[in-house]
């Protein structure tokens, strides 16, 4: 059997409790377009992306909140080009009363220059927006381990 040479992540599927609320959040925060949507009672879903690229699918088929203590998704991370874009996203999220894990932009590791913001979506799914450079070197929130791994 030959190995696939160009393996890439396709889209990420997320279970949500309230599709309308999650659609509003993800479209506002990430400027996603609704590419397709199912509105049938008991089978609501939405495909979100940019241009012709599908990035996130939302499925209204769960109850409760995201469980960080069970196996499964740890967090979902999005990269921007600059730390200024990350700070603009942070301001937007503050206007939406998003729940943040840390205050402001934090480095990924001790004295690192990559860093970002860590927050939750309306269902408690852990999210990150970061830039590969531009974060002020500082103490990381979790000493001796990657910040994005322990929040």
Automatic annotation (TrEMBL):
Pfam families: Glyoxalase. Residues 8-132 form the VOC domain. Keywords: Metal-binding. The keyword Protein transport does not apply. The keyword Isomerase does not apply. This is VOC family protein.
């Amino acid at each position: 059997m030959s190995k696939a040479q160009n393996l890439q992540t396709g889209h990420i599927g997320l279970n949500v409790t309230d599709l309308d609320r999650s659609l509003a959040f993800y479209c506002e925060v990430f400027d996603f377009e609704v590419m397709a949507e199912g509105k049938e009672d008991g089978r609501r879903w939405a495909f979100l992306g940019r241009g012709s690229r599908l990035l996130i699918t939302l499925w209204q088929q769960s109850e409760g909140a995201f469980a960080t203590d069970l196996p499964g998704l740890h967090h979902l991370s999005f990269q921007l080009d600059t730390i200024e874009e990350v700070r603009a996203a942070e301001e937007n999220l503050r206007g939406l009363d998003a729940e943040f894990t840390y205050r402001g932009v934090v480095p990924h590791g001790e004295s690192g220059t990559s860093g970002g913001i860590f927050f939750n979506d309306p269902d408690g799914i852990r999210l990150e927006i970061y830039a590969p450079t531009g974060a002020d070197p500082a103490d990381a929130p979790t000493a001796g381990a990657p910040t994005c791994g322990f929040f």
